[in-house]
Design goal:
- The structure is a single chain.
- With 147 residues, the protein is an alpha/beta fold.
- It has a domain of 92 residues: Rossmann fold (3-Layer(aba) Sandwich), CATH 3.40.50.
- Strands 3-2-1-4-5-6 form a 6-stranded mixed beta sheet, with helices on both faces.
- Helix 2 packs across helix 3.
- The protein is 35% helix and 22% strand.
- The protein has 4 helices and 6 strands.
């Protein structure tokens, strides 16, 4: 019997978590030969749980973007450790999450990173979901202007 929402299956299922992490690590390692990655970015419980493991296994630093409604102990809306290295003039990052529906979360993440770091480039979005299946979507433009 499980006591969690279905969207947290990758976190609670060791088998699914391993499949998702292994596939993400392999894809990110392959992509890192094509473009430089400064940070892995994630939000929320499921995103950070998976992205934290992927960050550890790839050696790419993790950046956590908090929701405005996140009542955590942290006072930072964007958290990262650049390992004492100066931030590059152009910060390349990838985004890991389980789902993109309306795009509101992604727009918020881009906006917060822009305001915290400055010039940055989202290089690729990696989505994972359900029974170890995952989806990798190439970078796409997100209009931050509110209509």
């Amino acid at each position: 019997m499980s006591h969690h929402p279905s969207w947290l299956t990758e976190i609670y299922s060791e088998k699914n978590r391993k499949i998702a992490v292994d596939q993400l690590v392999a894809e990110i390692q392959k992509d890192s030969t094509e473009f430089h990655i400064d940070f892995i970015v994630a939000v929320g419980i499921s995103g950070v749980a998976i992205a934290g493991i992927v960050s550890f296994l790839t050696g790419i630093p993790l950046m956590i973007v908090r929701k405005d409604s996140d009542h955590s102990h942290s006072s930072y809306s964007v958290e990262y450790d650049n390992k004492g290295i100066d931030m590059p003039p152009l910060c390349n990052w990838i985004f890991i999450d389980d789902l993109i529906s309306s795009g509101d979360t992604l727009r918020r993440v881009i906006s917060k990173i822009d305001s915290e770091i400055g010039i940055n480039a989202l290089k690729k979005i990696y989505l994972y979901h359900g029974e170890g299946q995952w989806y990798s979507t190439p970078m796409f433009y997100v209009d931050l202007d509110e209509d």
